TrEMBL record:
CDD domains: HTH_ARSR. GO terms for cellular component: protein-DNA complex. Keywords: DNA-binding, Transcription, Transcription regulation. Belongs to the LysR transcriptional regulatory family. This is LysR family transcriptional regulator. It comes from the Bacteria. One of its GO terms (molecular function) is DNA binding. Residues 4-61 form the HTH lysR-type domain. Signal peptide: none annotated. InterPro entries: ArsR-like_HTH (IPR011991), LysR_HTH_N (IPR000847), LysR_subst-bd (IPR005119), WH-like_DNA-bd_sf (IPR036388), WH_DNA-bd_sf (IPR036390).
Amino acid sequence: MVEWDIRKLQILRTLRERGTVTATAEALRMTPSAVSQQLTNLAKQVGVPLLEAQGRRVRLTDAARLVLRHAEAVFEQLERADAELAAYVQGEVGEVRVGAFSTAVPALVVPAVRALRAAHPGVVVRVREAEAAEAYELLAAGEVDLALSLAAQAPAVGDPRFTRVPLLADPLDVALPKGHALATAEPLRLADLAAEDWIFGGSGPWSDITRGACEAAGFSPRQGHSAAGWTAILAMVEAGMGVALVPRMAAVRRGGVVMRAVGEERPVRHVVAAVRRGGEDAPVVARALEALRGAAAGQSV
C-alpha cells in the first residue's frame, strides 16, 4: 500500500498546470531543485516513473495522469472538509445536545430550535427531556452539552465543573377555580389565600418553591392534595379542590381556571442553563445559548 503524500501530489498537479519545473517552483514558492526532489521521491513511493524528458522540458507519464485523476477526488473532498471546518469554527454547522426539564422543552427549547433552523440551518439540536439532577449527571458524563434547570436544582455557583448561564425569571401565578371569591379581587396577595387548600408535590423543588413563596408572604401553605404534573394540578384546581402556584411558562389554559398575577410579591422561579466549564466557547453551543436567551426574552414579554 502506497503512503500517499498530499503535498507531493499538489506539486505534481501544479506541474501539470504550469508545464515546467521552474514555473511550478515559482507558483509554490519553492526552488526548482526542491520540486524535482519531491517528484523523484513520489515516483519512488508509487513505484513507477511520473515524468519523462521531452527536449529541455519534462512531461507527465500516463501513470502520472492516472495518479492525478484519482488525486482530484481527494483534493475535492479536502476542499469540502476545509469549507465545513470553517463553517464549524464559525458555529454554522455542528450538533449540540440539550437536556432540559419538561416545561422548559416547549417554552424555551422548541422556540430556540426553530430560531436556529431559520438562522443557522447547519446546526442540529438533539433534545433529551430529563429531570434536573439527571440532566447534570448527563452533562458531567458528556452525554449532553447543555442542561436546563431551575436555579434551586442547579449545581452551586462555585462548582468548578460547570458554567451557569441565567436565562429567565419565570413569574409564578396563582391558579384559582373560575368561581372562586378571589378570582377577580384587586389586588390579590398570596396572604389572602392562607386559609386555602394548596396543591403541590409532596417533595422536591416545586414543593420547596411553593412553600418558600407562601412563607415569604407570612404563612405556611396547607397541602390539600399532592401532584407533580401541571395537567393534574390544574384539573384539580378547575374542580375546586384547591389553589396552586403555577409558573407562567408552564401554564396550560383551562376554561375553568383563572390565572392571577400576585400583587407586589411577584414570586418567580429562576431558570438557568449550564455547560461544562469552557464549553460555552464551542461555537455551536454558543449558538444554542444565544437562541435560548432569545426564547427566554420572548417569554419575558
